[in-house]
Specification:
Length: about 300
């Protein structure tokens, strides 16, 4: 829970009478170099310094989401809060000394939650810790060196789950990647079937209109006009399919919204690219029947049943 000092009424010196029941906020215990190592900018106030020790005033850095929720239109620097109403932190005020930018911390799918970053050396004993190392060295070279250093410092300390940040992100997005691969495969299959369908329909139409095409050629129609006529019909057929597909897409937008990350269902760029790709593939599929129709000899076409 996050209890702001003097949020409503009650003596500020009595943490049990702040007049504020508290709301949930995520807490992360970090080291003094966390923000610099992770390249998280400090937008206001300051980060942690060597002067922030176990015996100094407890301090915290909050993100923008927390400021928007608990301190709207207010500068939170210098404000104090409690972590809860029970336990060892019930009467321990923590001062906000800085504001950091919002970042995706534990979940890439959900919006950034309110988070306050507390200094690990000022917090109760932690059960486990995650160490972050920034280095220009490759992982294959860095990991053995880290293991040797840890063994020298604490031989009984296990070093588990060593991975890069990209590997961590990839693992958290594994479901989305698998879904994207499957939908891309089904999309390519659907595109291939659409091209085969358009080709088959146009080839059948050309074969049924061979006599008509022969008459047009005999009356002086240019072969380029015959190709354009067939391609125009293929284009109208593809356009009708695209219009119907867009209508179905708009109806199903809300169903697929939860499966998308970093992309809106109504993204105009994606929809425009899909439409142009479908039309282009339809014209390519209709080009072979169109070229075949333009090569028909008038006399042979007139004898065609």
């Amino acid at each position: 829970m996050f209890l702001v000092e003097g949020a409503q009424q009650g003596p500020a010196s009595d943490p049990k009478k702040t007049g504020h029941e508290g709301e949930p906020a995520m807490v992360s215990y970090v080291g003094p170099d966390f923000f610099s190592v992770m390249s998280i900018p400090i937008l206001g106030g300051r980060g942690f310094t060597p002067q922030d020790t176990e015996n100094s005033v407890p301090v915290s850095v909050v993100n923008q989401a927390l400021v928007r929720k608990f301190f709207p239109n207010t500068n939170p620097i210098g404000k104090r809060f409690l972590k809860g109403t029970n336990g060892p932190n019930a009467t321990r005020w923590i001062e906000i000394v800085g504001i950091c930018a919002d970042t995706r911390y534990s979940d890439m799918r959900q919006p950034t939650p309110p988070v306050h970053f507390d200094l690990d050396r000022q917090s109760p004993a932690l059960g486990s810790m995650t160490y972050i190392v920034r280095s220009p060295l490759q992982t294959a070279i860095l990991v053995p060196s880290l293991r040797r250093v840890v063994q020298q410092i604490a031989p009984d300390l296990p070093l588990n789950h060593i991975r890069t940040q990209q590997q961590q992100i990839a693992a958290s997005m594994q479901q989305e990647r698998m879904f994207a691969s499957l939908t891309a495969g089904f999309g390519l299959l659907a595109l291939a079937l659409a091209c085969v369908g358009i080709y088959g329909i146009m080839a059948y139409t050309v074969s049924q209109r061979t006599n008509e095409i022969g008459i047009r050629l005999a009356l002086g129609a240019a072969r380029g006009q015959i190709r354009a006529m067939v391609l125009r019909e293929a284009g109208w057929l593809a356009t009708a399919g695209v219009v119907v597909g867009l209508g179905v897409t708009i109806i199903l937008m809300r169903l697929v919204q939860s499966m998308l990350y970093g992309l809106k269902p109504s993204d105009p760029l994606s929809l425009t690219a899909s439409v142009l790709l479908l039309l282009a593939m339809a014209l390519i599929a209709g080009w072979i029947p169109a070229a075949r129709a333009s090569r028909v000899e008038p006399m042979e076409a007139l004898r065609h049943d």
